[in-house]
Amino acid sequence: MAITYHAGRRIQGTSTDSTTVYRGETPVTHGSDTVITFLQDGKFTPTSSFDVEYLVVGGGGGSTTGGGGAGGYLANGSANHGVTAQDYNITVGAGGTSTSLSVGNGKGGDSSFDTITATGGGSGAGADQNQTGVNGGSGGGGHSGWNPPATTGGAGNTPSTTPSQGNNGSGGSGATWSHAYGGAGGGSASAGSTATPRVGGSGTQNDITGTNTYYSAGGGGASWFTAGGAGGTGGGGNAGDEDDGVGQDGQTYGSGGGASFVESGIASGKQGIVVIRFATSGNTYETSLGGRPTNVQVGSRYEETDTRKIYYRDDIDFKELDGAEATNYRSDSWYEQLTGETP
Predict the structure, then answer these.
(1) How large is the average pLDDT for residues 18-43?
(2) What is d(CA 296, CA 317) in angstroms, rounded to the nearest whole number?
């Protein structure tokens, strides 16, 4: 049931209504705007209608001998996306990690806000069954040549969005182990390179938070006898050097991991992020942690209809009747002690 308000400072709801909700990192002000950053799943709840600017970045892909692809990058660049008074679920994709060099199964998680979904970055290709780089927001790099042969990189902007959310990963190369190069992950601004060693695709800068920051760069491809490919500009993971180097995890939100030729060198993509920015003046939104309301009078009583528990509001928060936090109050005098009034 929804929370309902009755006369006499009496409020009813269920324990589910009282569940704590993550509503983003502490809102900050930049000029005339409010900025809310989400680093985990949560809710954004406008209490009026207004327009927002958004940044939605999927989790970066994990590496194999191919670099991880960047998570999808979607931003509208200005406050032109309308929201209304309702709950908007926020999903923040995790960075991916492949379980072995043989199987590229470390695709990043999707991030979303309202109708906008940024797909997780594709993982680097595993060597089993000639697997290609995995498709995603940006594609993962193909695996290096030599038993089995090199394969192509994964496709970016998959599924397709307009504007594009990412780019392709590059393929691996080399017919012998001494000339083996893994492909690089694609980035939000460019594809993984085809030079040797292969460099990850570049990320994209965005100043929605008030600081111009890179997001969604691709991971570099591995190399047997030279330095591994660098991560893409803006925080893609560097590949491990030569045949025993360790790949570097993605460094900025949505960036792919750098490749390696050793199991211990498998690198992870960096998690995604969601940022919402809007004009402060006249635009209202829910800031409480959810559940029992915060904008009520001292002495208000909240009844959980499914658990039969009762909570009274002091000058700080609701506390359970006879609960551990309420040891200084006697049950039959809560109201009088909190309000100074006689019931």
Answers:
(1) 93
(2) 10
Q: Which residue has the tokens 């829910």?
A: 286
C-alpha–C-alpha distance, residues 195 and 173, integer Å: 10
Residue 73 has pLDDT above 50, yes or no: yes
Token readout for 248 is 């570097």
Long-range CB contacts for residues 312-321, cutoff 8 Å, separation at least 24: 312/338, 313/338, 314/338, 318/292
SS3 206: strand
* Residue keyed to tokens 């590949």: 239
The angle subtended at Cα 254 by Cα 32 and Cα 99, nearest 5°, is 155
- Residue 325's SS3 state is helix
The count of other CB atoms within 10 Å of the CB of residue 45 is 18
Q: Which residues pair with 30 in a beta bridge?
A: 33
Encoding tokens for residue 192?
């993984």
Give the model's pLDDT for residue 153. 98
Distances, alpha carbon 160 to alpha carbons 8, 155, 157, in Å: 55, 10, 5
User: Token match 């324990």: residue?
Assistant: 15
pTM here? 0.83
Instruction: Confirm if 131 and 123 have CB atoms less than 8 A apart.
Output: no
* Element counts in the chain: helices (H) and strands (E): 1, 17
For residue 341, give both structure tokens. 């009034």
Give the DSSP per-residue string, 26-55.
PPEEETTEEEEEESSSEEE-BSS-EEEEEE
